[in-house]
Amino acid sequence: xxxxxxxxxxxxxxxxxxxxxxxxxxxxxxxxxxxxxxxxxxxxxxxxxxxxxxxxxxxxxxxxxxxxxxxxxxxxxxxxxxxxxxxxxxxxxxxxxxxxxxxxxxxxxxxxxxxxxxxxxxxxxxxxxxxxxxxxxxxxxxxxxxxxxxxxxxxxxxxxxxxxxxxxxxxxxxxxxxxxxxxxxxxxxxxxxxxxxxxxxxxxxxxxxxxxxxxxxxxxxxxxxxxxxxxxxxxxxxxxxxxxxxxxxxxxxxxxxxxxxxxxxxxxxxxxxxxxxxxxxxxxxxxxxxxxxxxxxxxxxxxxxxx
Length: 307
Prior knowledge:
The protein is mainly α. It is about 70% helix and about 0% strand. It has helices spanning about 20-25, 30-40, 45-65, 95-135, 135-150, 155-165, 170-175, 180-195, 200-205, 210-220, 225-245, 260-265, 275-300. Helix 3 packs across helix 4 (about 95-135), helix 9 (about 200-205) packs antiparallel against helix 10 (about 210-220) and helix 11 packs parallel to helix 12 (about 260-265).
Protein backbone atom coordinates (compact mmCIF):
# COMPACT_ATOMS: atom_id res chain seq x y z
CA UNK A 1 0.00 0.00 0.00
CA UNK A 2 1.27 3.46 -0.87
CA UNK A 3 0.16 6.90 0.21
CA UNK A 4 -1.88 7.26 -3.01
CA UNK A 5 -3.96 4.22 -2.01
CA UNK A 6 -5.01 5.86 1.27
CA UNK A 7 -8.26 7.86 1.11
CA UNK A 8 -7.61 11.59 1.04
CA UNK A 9 -10.15 12.07 3.83
CA UNK A 10 -7.65 10.59 6.27
CA UNK A 11 -5.28 13.47 5.58
CA UNK A 12 -7.93 16.16 6.00
CA UNK A 13 -7.51 18.30 9.12
CA UNK A 14 -9.77 17.27 11.94
CA UNK A 15 -12.04 19.77 13.67
CA UNK A 16 -12.57 19.73 17.43
CA UNK A 17 -14.89 21.56 19.75
CA UNK A 18 -13.60 23.45 22.78
CA UNK A 19 -14.01 20.46 25.11
CA UNK A 20 -11.99 18.26 22.78
CA UNK A 21 -9.25 20.85 22.52
CA UNK A 22 -8.99 21.09 26.31
CA UNK A 23 -8.81 17.31 26.59
CA UNK A 24 -6.06 17.11 23.96
CA UNK A 25 -4.12 19.87 25.71
CA UNK A 26 -4.24 17.94 28.98
CA UNK A 27 -3.09 14.76 27.25
CA UNK A 28 -0.31 16.52 25.35
CA UNK A 29 2.02 16.75 28.32
CA UNK A 30 5.46 15.54 27.40
CA UNK A 31 6.47 12.18 28.79
CA UNK A 32 9.80 13.74 29.77
CA UNK A 33 7.93 16.38 31.75
CA UNK A 34 6.11 13.68 33.69
CA UNK A 35 9.40 11.88 34.27
CA UNK A 36 10.93 15.10 35.58
CA UNK A 37 8.04 15.50 38.03
CA UNK A 38 8.61 11.97 39.33
CA UNK A 39 12.34 12.61 39.60
CA UNK A 40 11.76 15.72 41.71
CA UNK A 41 9.83 13.60 44.20
CA UNK A 42 12.96 11.51 44.77
CA UNK A 43 14.73 13.71 47.31
CA UNK A 44 17.94 11.68 47.36
CA UNK A 45 18.30 11.96 43.58
CA UNK A 46 17.58 15.70 43.66
CA UNK A 47 20.14 16.26 46.42
CA UNK A 48 22.74 14.27 44.47
CA UNK A 49 21.94 16.28 41.35
CA UNK A 50 22.53 19.52 43.26
CA UNK A 51 25.77 18.17 44.74
CA UNK A 52 27.02 17.21 41.27
CA UNK A 53 26.24 20.70 39.97
CA UNK A 54 28.11 22.25 42.90
CA UNK A 55 31.09 19.96 42.35
CA UNK A 56 31.20 20.89 38.66
CA UNK A 57 31.04 24.61 39.50
CA UNK A 58 33.79 24.30 42.10
CA UNK A 59 35.95 22.25 39.72
CA UNK A 60 35.71 25.05 37.16
CA UNK A 61 35.91 28.09 39.43
CA UNK A 62 38.14 27.06 42.37
CA UNK A 63 41.41 26.58 40.44
CA UNK A 64 40.78 29.87 38.62
CA UNK A 65 40.39 31.95 41.79
CA UNK A 66 43.01 30.12 43.85
CA UNK A 67 46.20 32.10 44.57
CA UNK A 68 48.21 28.96 43.75
CA UNK A 69 48.70 27.01 40.55
CA UNK A 70 48.15 23.26 40.63
CA UNK A 71 51.80 22.71 39.60
CA UNK A 72 53.33 25.44 41.80
CA UNK A 73 55.90 24.02 44.22
CA UNK A 74 57.12 25.42 47.53
CA UNK A 75 59.68 23.22 49.24
CA UNK A 76 59.51 25.32 52.40
CA UNK A 77 55.86 24.27 52.89
CA UNK A 78 56.10 20.52 52.28
CA UNK A 79 53.40 18.26 53.78
CA UNK A 80 51.76 20.95 55.88
CA UNK A 81 48.55 20.02 57.64
CA UNK A 82 45.30 21.77 56.61
CA UNK A 83 45.36 25.44 57.56
CA UNK A 84 43.77 28.74 56.58
CA UNK A 85 46.37 29.28 53.86
CA UNK A 86 46.06 25.69 52.61
CA UNK A 87 42.60 24.29 53.52
CA UNK A 88 43.53 20.76 52.34
CA UNK A 89 47.22 21.00 53.26
CA UNK A 90 50.22 20.64 50.95
CA UNK A 91 51.82 17.62 49.31
CA UNK A 92 55.38 16.29 49.15
CA UNK A 93 56.45 19.19 46.92
CA UNK A 94 54.62 21.92 48.82
CA UNK A 95 51.83 22.18 46.26
CA UNK A 96 48.46 23.41 47.48
CA UNK A 97 46.11 20.44 47.80
CA UNK A 98 42.96 22.58 47.62
CA UNK A 99 43.89 23.73 44.12
CA UNK A 100 45.12 20.31 43.02
CA UNK A 101 42.02 18.46 44.23
CA UNK A 102 39.62 20.77 42.44
CA UNK A 103 41.80 20.79 39.34
CA UNK A 104 42.01 16.99 39.54
CA UNK A 105 38.23 16.81 39.90
CA UNK A 106 37.90 18.93 36.75
CA UNK A 107 40.20 16.58 34.83
CA UNK A 108 38.44 13.44 36.10
CA UNK A 109 35.00 14.85 35.24
CA UNK A 110 36.26 15.90 31.80
CA UNK A 111 37.58 12.41 31.10
CA UNK A 112 34.39 10.78 32.38
CA UNK A 113 32.11 13.09 30.39
CA UNK A 114 34.07 12.87 27.13
CA UNK A 115 34.37 9.09 27.33
CA UNK A 116 30.64 8.78 28.07
CA UNK A 117 29.69 11.07 25.17
CA UNK A 118 31.89 9.18 22.69
CA UNK A 119 30.44 5.88 23.87
CA UNK A 120 26.98 7.43 23.61
CA UNK A 121 27.38 8.47 19.97
CA UNK A 122 29.01 5.23 18.81
CA UNK A 123 26.76 2.95 20.83
CA UNK A 124 23.48 4.64 19.90
CA UNK A 125 24.07 4.62 16.16
CA UNK A 126 25.68 1.18 16.11
CA UNK A 127 22.79 -0.36 18.07
CA UNK A 128 20.16 1.52 16.07
CA UNK A 129 21.61 0.52 12.70
CA UNK A 130 21.97 -3.09 13.83
CA UNK A 131 18.35 -3.26 14.97
CA UNK A 132 16.77 -1.45 12.02
CA UNK A 133 18.75 -3.30 9.34
CA UNK A 134 18.23 -6.77 10.79
CA UNK A 135 19.08 -9.95 8.93
CA UNK A 136 22.70 -10.66 8.06
CA UNK A 137 23.80 -7.11 8.85
CA UNK A 138 22.49 -7.43 12.38
CA UNK A 139 24.08 -10.89 12.75
CA UNK A 140 27.52 -9.66 11.67
CA UNK A 141 27.35 -6.56 13.87
CA UNK A 142 26.35 -8.63 16.89
CA UNK A 143 29.23 -11.07 16.31
CA UNK A 144 31.60 -8.09 16.42
CA UNK A 145 30.11 -7.04 19.75
CA UNK A 146 30.45 -10.57 21.12
CA UNK A 147 34.15 -10.59 20.24
CA UNK A 148 34.70 -7.25 21.98
CA UNK A 149 32.72 -8.35 25.04
CA UNK A 150 34.85 -11.49 25.30
CA UNK A 151 37.98 -9.39 25.89
CA UNK A 152 38.08 -7.64 29.31
CA UNK A 153 37.87 -3.90 28.76
CA UNK A 154 40.47 -3.08 31.41
CA UNK A 155 43.10 -5.22 29.66
CA UNK A 156 42.46 -3.44 26.37
CA UNK A 157 42.71 -0.04 28.03
CA UNK A 158 45.95 -0.91 29.84
CA UNK A 159 47.57 -2.31 26.69
CA UNK A 160 46.49 0.76 24.74
CA UNK A 161 47.90 3.06 27.42
CA UNK A 162 51.23 1.22 27.41
CA UNK A 163 51.61 1.66 23.64
CA UNK A 164 50.71 5.36 23.35
CA UNK A 165 52.10 8.25 25.40
CA UNK A 166 50.07 9.05 28.52
CA UNK A 167 47.62 11.92 28.34
CA UNK A 168 43.99 12.91 28.67
CA UNK A 169 43.23 12.21 25.01
CA UNK A 170 44.90 8.81 25.16
CA UNK A 171 42.84 7.78 28.19
CA UNK A 172 39.58 8.90 26.55
CA UNK A 173 40.35 7.03 23.33
CA UNK A 174 41.42 3.91 25.23
CA UNK A 175 38.17 3.87 27.19
CA UNK A 176 36.16 4.35 24.01
CA UNK A 177 37.54 1.31 22.18
CA UNK A 178 35.05 -1.05 23.82
CA UNK A 179 33.17 1.27 26.17
CA UNK A 180 30.31 1.74 23.68
CA UNK A 181 29.35 -1.95 23.62
CA UNK A 182 26.85 -1.85 26.51
CA UNK A 183 25.17 1.23 25.07
CA UNK A 184 24.86 -0.45 21.67
CA UNK A 185 23.28 -3.57 23.14
CA UNK A 186 20.77 -1.60 25.20
CA UNK A 187 19.77 0.64 22.30
CA UNK A 188 19.44 -2.34 19.95
CA UNK A 189 17.18 -4.18 22.40
CA UNK A 190 15.02 -1.08 22.85
CA UNK A 191 14.69 -0.42 19.11
CA UNK A 192 13.81 -4.05 18.42
CA UNK A 193 10.78 -3.47 20.65
CA UNK A 194 9.87 -0.25 18.85
CA UNK A 195 10.53 -1.06 15.18
CA UNK A 196 7.21 -2.90 14.77
CA UNK A 197 5.13 -0.26 16.55
CA UNK A 198 2.39 1.52 14.63
CA UNK A 199 4.12 4.91 14.45
CA UNK A 200 7.27 3.36 12.93
CA UNK A 201 5.27 1.34 10.40
CA UNK A 202 3.30 4.47 9.51
CA UNK A 203 6.51 6.42 8.93
CA UNK A 204 7.84 3.69 6.68
CA UNK A 205 4.51 3.52 4.85
CA UNK A 206 4.77 7.21 4.06
CA UNK A 207 8.18 6.71 2.50
CA UNK A 208 10.41 7.86 5.36
CA UNK A 209 13.96 6.61 4.90
CA UNK A 210 15.61 4.35 7.45
CA UNK A 211 17.99 7.09 8.57
CA UNK A 212 15.17 9.55 9.19
CA UNK A 213 13.18 6.83 10.97
CA UNK A 214 16.13 6.19 13.28
CA UNK A 215 16.81 9.86 14.02
CA UNK A 216 13.24 11.18 14.22
CA UNK A 217 11.31 8.27 15.72
CA UNK A 218 13.46 5.51 17.20
CA UNK A 219 16.31 7.28 19.01
CA UNK A 220 14.04 9.87 20.71
CA UNK A 221 11.96 7.00 22.10
CA UNK A 222 15.05 5.38 23.62
CA UNK A 223 16.12 8.55 25.45
CA UNK A 224 15.37 7.07 28.87
CA UNK A 225 17.70 4.11 28.33
CA UNK A 226 20.38 6.41 26.92
CA UNK A 227 20.27 8.91 29.80
CA UNK A 228 20.39 6.20 32.46
CA UNK A 229 23.32 4.46 30.78
CA UNK A 230 25.24 7.76 30.52
CA UNK A 231 24.68 8.43 34.22
CA UNK A 232 26.36 5.14 35.06
CA UNK A 233 29.03 5.45 32.35
CA UNK A 234 30.46 8.72 33.71
CA UNK A 235 31.43 7.42 37.18
CA UNK A 236 32.65 4.18 35.60
CA UNK A 237 35.04 6.15 33.38
CA UNK A 238 36.18 8.27 36.35
CA UNK A 239 36.91 5.13 38.37
CA UNK A 240 38.79 3.56 35.44
CA UNK A 241 40.95 6.67 35.08
CA UNK A 242 41.63 6.66 38.82
CA UNK A 243 42.67 3.00 38.68
CA UNK A 244 44.96 3.57 35.70
CA UNK A 245 46.63 6.53 37.40
CA UNK A 246 46.94 4.60 40.65
CA UNK A 247 48.85 1.74 38.99
CA UNK A 248 51.03 4.19 37.08
CA UNK A 249 49.75 3.93 33.49
CA UNK A 250 47.39 6.91 33.55
CA UNK A 251 48.22 10.59 33.86
CA UNK A 252 51.65 11.57 35.08
CA UNK A 253 53.06 14.49 37.06
CA UNK A 254 52.60 17.40 37.10
CA UNK A 255 49.10 16.70 35.77
CA UNK A 256 46.55 16.19 38.50
CA UNK A 257 43.52 13.93 38.53
CA UNK A 258 41.78 12.24 41.40
CA UNK A 259 43.61 9.03 40.53
CA UNK A 260 47.00 10.77 40.59
CA UNK A 261 46.18 12.45 43.90
CA UNK A 262 45.08 9.18 45.48
CA UNK A 263 48.25 7.47 44.29
CA UNK A 264 50.38 10.28 45.77
CA UNK A 265 48.40 10.21 49.00
CA UNK A 266 48.78 6.46 49.33
CA UNK A 267 52.56 6.73 49.03
CA UNK A 268 52.59 9.21 51.96
CA UNK A 269 49.77 7.65 53.97
CA UNK A 270 51.61 7.32 57.29
CA UNK A 271 53.31 10.72 57.21
CA UNK A 272 50.35 12.75 55.89
CA UNK A 273 47.05 10.80 55.79
CA UNK A 274 45.13 13.91 54.73
CA UNK A 275 46.79 13.65 51.31
CA UNK A 276 44.75 10.49 50.74
CA UNK A 277 41.60 11.35 52.69
CA UNK A 278 40.52 14.45 50.77
CA UNK A 279 40.84 13.10 47.19
CA UNK A 280 39.30 9.80 48.34
CA UNK A 281 36.30 11.69 49.74
CA UNK A 282 35.99 13.61 46.45
CA UNK A 283 35.93 10.51 44.24
CA UNK A 284 33.58 8.61 46.59
CA UNK A 285 31.20 11.57 46.67
CA UNK A 286 31.17 11.78 42.86
CA UNK A 287 30.63 8.04 42.46
CA UNK A 288 27.82 7.88 45.04
CA UNK A 289 26.02 10.95 43.68
CA UNK A 290 26.08 9.71 40.10
CA UNK A 291 24.92 6.24 41.18
CA UNK A 292 22.00 7.58 43.23
CA UNK A 293 21.03 10.01 40.46
CA UNK A 294 21.17 7.16 37.95
CA UNK A 295 18.90 5.05 40.16
CA UNK A 296 16.52 7.99 40.48
CA UNK A 297 16.40 8.46 36.72
CA UNK A 298 15.77 4.76 36.23
CA UNK A 299 12.83 4.89 38.62
CA UNK A 300 11.51 8.06 36.98
CA UNK A 301 11.65 6.58 33.48
CA UNK A 302 10.26 3.19 34.56
CA UNK A 303 6.73 2.81 33.08
CA UNK A 304 5.69 0.80 36.12
CA UNK A 305 6.26 3.90 38.29
CA UNK A 306 3.85 6.10 36.32
CA UNK A 307 0.74 5.23 38.32
